[in-house]
Amino acid sequence: MKIIVIHKSNLEKIPPVISAMDIMLELGYEIVLINTGVAKNLYDLFHQKGVDIYTIRDKKRNIKLLKLIDYINFRKKAFKIITKYSCTESILLWIEGGPTILCLGSKIKRYKYILQISELHEKQNLLLRAMNKVIHQAAAVFIPEYNRTILYKIWFKLSKKPLVLPNKPYFLPSIDDLSVIKSKYEDVIALLEDKKVILYQGGISKTRMLDKIACITKELSEEFRLLLVGAEQEEGVITELRKIDPTIIHVDFIPAPDYLIFATIAYIGFVFYAPTSLNNAYCAPNKINEYSAYSLPMLGNDIPGLKYIFEKTNAGVIVDETDLDSIREGILKIDNNYSFYKSNAHKVYDYIDNKKVIETALNTID
């Protein structure tokens, strides 16, 4: 059986798809990828592994009519590719994300398909309506966080809960592997020498509450330094943060696996989500698994998507995001008990075996 992975985005922007493809290849499945673009390093990697890659360029236009044209173009070309393969062999569609489901529509019901839904989409009625038309017939539905599976079961009146498939990388370069690329970032790394680096990696926006941690890193001793790795998603956010703490270091978006080099030199991993939506409250960030993979103790805020996994594993400390004293105390608690938290940090990554989850699901479909 050939698995056709479809997502209306660039591959490097959706790490859970990369992980799923890695796992399915290791399980012996042939993979076809249909998306809007692939970074060269990932293209070369998957091409060498025998993946057929089809790129349908998306012009990322905001005008509704032009955006609709992009959707129609993607749908038309995607189904042309699907038809080509389905004429000669057994296929399974692996469809990631609400926008892709909306784009492809009910026509996918002609085939066997799996849905991988990375976001909750609770305020996006158009996407929810599109999902409601196809979610009941899916051979499997993967959701990255337990509480979200309950919400989806209720919202869509499903007969059973979707499967939990955490957002985490499958193949991770070792510290030795990453040391080979250190020279590419030696200027930044030199600025962090002898510092206790508090790392935030991911999209940089106000909802990540980075102003809170900036207030504390400014107050703490000179040995602490705040490092932000990721693209600025709201213009001016980094400028505002540097007004709070001028020593902040920012590295713009770099594709995997290069950005993981900073997890190997960091002291604490930072992950806050403003509890302004269900998607944030029941967050499923791949960054906690990336921090965990390199045994990096974590500081998180008091939301269910972080609280229960941190408390169950002792991989980090949960603090009150509204209270600067609580944040300061959380950092110092990790600092004063560093060996304890570091020794437990890897447990988040090990908590669920993604390969086993996918293998079991695919075996029921075969």
How would you sum up this structure, described in words?
The mean pLDDT is 94. The chain has 17 helices and 13 strands. Helix 4 crosses helix 5 (125-132) and helix 9 runs parallel beside helix 10 (237-244). With 366 residues, it is an alpha/beta fold. The protein starts with a strand and ends with a helix. The strands form 2 sheets. It has a 7-stranded parallel beta sheet, with helices on both faces. Strands 10-9-8-11-12-13 form a 6-stranded parallel beta sheet, sandwiched between helices. The longest helix is centred in the first third of the chain and has 23 residues, at 64-86. Helix 1 links the parallel strand 1 (2-6) and strand 2 (30-35). Helices cover 43% and strands 16% of the residues.
What's the short version?
The chain is an alpha/beta fold and 366 residues long. The protein has helices at 15-26, 40-48, 64-86, 98-104, 125-132, 146-155, 175-179, 186-191, 210-219, 237-244, 278-281, 286-293, 304-313, 324-336, 338-344, 347-350, 354-365, and strands at residues 2-6, 30-35, 52-55, 91-96, 113-116, 140-143, 163-164, 196-201, 224-229, 249-251, 268-271, 298-301, 316-319.
- Given as residue ranges, the uncertain stretches (5+ residues, pLDDT < 50) are none
Work out the strand percent: 15-25%
Instruction: Indicate the mean pLDDT.
Output: 94
CATH class of the largest domain: Alpha Beta
CATH homologous superfamily grouping of the largest domain: Glycogen Phosphorylase B
Architecture (CATH level 2) name of the largest domain: 3-Layer(aba) Sandwich
Identify the strand order in the major beta sheet: 3-2-1-4-5-6-7
State the order of secondary-structure elements, H for helix, E for strand.
EHEHEHEHEHEHEHHEHEHEEHHEHEHHHH
Number of domains: 2
Q: Estimate the global geometry from the Cα principal axes.
A: globular
